[in-house]
Amino acid sequence: MSAQMPEPSFLAIVQIHQIQAMLHLGLLPEPESGETIPVDLSRARFEIELLNILRDKTSGQLDAEEQQLLGEVIESLEHAFLLRQQGGGQG
């Protein structure tokens, strides 16, 4: 049985990178196995940087809701990244 695909949207792009970063920060289990994958800060940082590039390149093109969502996602991921980098918990 295949899962229904969401409608392509700006939100979907943000969510893809958010989920990848969360996986590499150890905040989400791997979807297929349910296992938590080892923390990989370099891959998490890569996903966060992609979101920062997306924010920079779309500056002035997003509606208020999209801009707020992207900012909140980046802020949350950066906070979780710093906690992990310092040896902390779940962000």
Account of the protein in words:
With 91 residues, the chain is an all-alpha fold. It has one domain. Helix content is 59%, strand content 0%. It has three helices and no strands. The chain has helices at residues 10-24, 41-57, 64-85. The N and C termini lie far apart (34 Å). The model has no long low-confidence stretch (mean pLDDT 91).
- Average pLDDT, all residues: 91
Count of alpha/pi helices: 3
Topology as H/E string? HHH
Stretches where pLDDT is under 50 for at least 5 consecutive residues are: none
Total beta strand runs:
0
Number of spatially distinct domains: 1
Structural class: mainly alpha
Strand content: under 5%
Reported for the largest beta sheet, the result is: none
Q: TL;DR?
A:
This protein has three helices and no strands. With 91 residues, it is mainly α.
Key features of this structure:
mainly alpha, globular
Please render the helix and strand layout as text.
Layout: H1 10-24, H2 41-57, H3 64-85
Helix pairs in contact: 1-2, 1-3, 2-3
